[in-house]
Design goal:
Length: 92
């Protein structure tokens, strides 16, 4: 069975970063998509970027979801460790 562990302060720091970064990714994706949809921009560079952006949006969505999932895992592990060690004041 794999070992499970962690250091509470670093788990909380990771949780905080993940929970603040995930919405930022969604916000950036939305802003760029809106700006691109509203832009009057034609030509080969426009076509190439629009095509690539469609792929990037999917990837960014996956990254955001992985960060959300990881934040929940980190929170659970932090809280389990805090309860196991009696450091309940350090739960998230």
């Amino acid at each position: 069975m794999p070992a499970v562990g962690g250091e509470l302060p670093t788990l909380r720091a990771l949780y905080n970063e993940l929970t603040s970064a995930a919405p930022s990714i969604e916000e950036t994706t939305t802003k760029v998509t809106t700006a691109l949809d509203n832009a009057v921009w034609t030509g080969p560079n426009s076509d190439a970027f629009r095509s690539q952006w469609a792929e990037f949006k999917v990837t960014l969505g996956k990254i955001q979801q992985v960060m959300v999932d990881a934040s929940l895992d980190v929170k659970r592990q932090n809280n389990d460790l805090a309860l196991a060690t009696g450091a309940t004041s350090e739960t998230i």
